[in-house]
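User: Could you check the structure of this?
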Amino acid sequence: MHELSIALSIIEGAQEEAVRQGNAHVEAVHLRLGPLSGVVREALMFSYNLACEGTPLEGSRLVIDEVPVTFFCVRCGEERSPVSIMRMCCSVCDMPAGEILTGFELEIAALELAT
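Assistant: Sure, the predicted structure tokens are below.
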């Protein structure tokens, strides 16, 4: 389960930023997560809570903002969503997906800190 190592990295990054902010207490970590990141949301939530035990982040929340898959459709000339993750075609014209623009995200977007 690689979600545990990802959770540990999230905690480490959040702790480093909390120290830079004057040893602030982390109340929540906001994460942007795309379906193409290869991360299972539920497994990450479980791993985060487990990995926080005994750390300064114990009791903090992991808030996940799910980022949809979008790509540039050459035929439509616009950013579009695919029909589905399994069928990466334009939902308007059925053209196969070109350059994928979003959906691979796995990043800390913000921290809620209390001093």
